[in-house]
Amino acid sequence: MSMYTEVNKRKPCHSVNFVIAHDGFTLYDLVSYNSKHNDANGEGGNDGCNDNFSWNCGIEGETSDANINALRSRQMKNFHLALMVSQGTPMMLMGDEYGHTRYGNNNSYGHDTAINNFQWGQLEARKNDHFRFFSKMIKFRLSHSVLRKENFIHKDEVTWLEEDWYNEESRFLAFMLHDGNGGDIYLAFNAHHFSVKTAIPSPPRNRSWYRVVDTNLKSPDDFVTEGVADISETYNVAPYSAILLEAKK
């Protein structure tokens, strides 16, 4: 990587990062459908990609099951958090900020309907929960240069806290990003179906950890801009959730 960047003068900004794009599932559909549902396209379901790398969280499509819907909400927040803390240029699909659905249609370009049209009513209805989290996370990225490095991260700028690299069953990852001025950021992602009690490393000198994000919590506790103090030496990271801690004075 270092030789490649020296030859081509590439920077993190040359990397376009995304979870989903304009083709394929929307972010909501990524967590709501295991398979494409393209009958409305008139091609007998033969169009569109069959490899969607999605998980419907237990039920295919729309449901009134509160637990499934809560899990889908967490998963969308997890994906958005991962995107916003990734070095490089983030790309989002219009509508993901309110949870737009195409009802499993992954090849919807030919429809001039609600499938593709921006749903302003849904944006308004979700302004204080889903949209709030997405907006706050974007603002957090913009206000923290450690998430927008001009150059690729060096080994002294990140501490990987994973102790189980070679366990193929491990679905937990934690690391710290160091900004050089004590404003470190701790991140943990738990993709297990059970909670993980993880040790929180000591914060930089004269700093304390503040919880900014816990995707398992409901709005407005899922994102607290000023942070929540009194973080203990361990943290129970809930199933299918992620946390972000910020070191502050």
From TrEMBL:
Pfam family, one: ISOA1-3_C
Segments forming a coiled coil: none
Transmembrane region(s): none
Domain Isoamylase 1-3-like C-terminal residues, every copy: 164-228
Organism domain of life: Eukaryota
Stored PANTHER family: GLYCOGEN DEBRANCHING ENZYME (PTHR43002)
Entry protein name: Isoamylase 3, chloroplastic
Organism field: Datura stramonium
